[in-house]
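User: Second chain of the day. Same drill as before.
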Amino acid sequence: MFDRFLKSTKKNKIDIKRSLLADSYLKGLKGVEIGGSAHNQFGLNTINVDYTADVNTVFKQDEIKLVGEYLKVDVEAPGDHLPFKDERFDFVISSHVLEHFWDPIKALQEWMRVVKKSGYIFMIIPHKDRTFDHDRPRTTLKELVNRHDGSISAPETDLHIHYSVWVTEDLLELCSYMGLNVIEFQDVDDKVGNGFAIVIRK
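Assistant: Same format as last time:
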């Protein structure tokens, strides 16, 4: 069972809300989750990759506050620089993660690299209008391209904050620009509901 990878600080039952969309494409396959968390598990067959295994980060501490547990980090590595061979996994999945990368184009290219032919990238991304980012301006495609090509310099220290703010149409525009094959999307994701979901097939 997937919950054997949890590290408990107290005994309590986690009520996992499944994503029927994720299950319909990814159940029974083997994948990588970027930045998985105990309070928002998918229940799929994944390796959890995170930039650090330090339990004292704000993210892990939030997991413990919410459910008394944190999800074990299987591989400590940057999510946009994965230590895996090309086309190794059936899918890459992430929830509320892409916005934390200064260069989301680089992250998506890396995820595509490790996914097999006909494999998937499944993302849930916070929607500007349904999160604490609602007063911030939307991040434009031009800005993302400028970050990727170095026209806009990355911060000296990665604070792992929300560097980008999007609505569904913005990510669809980015996918179109990158030539990514979006096969399905939800304007309101079926897991938590404060984001949108995008399914890409390689």
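The mean pLDDT is 93.

User: Great, on to the next one.
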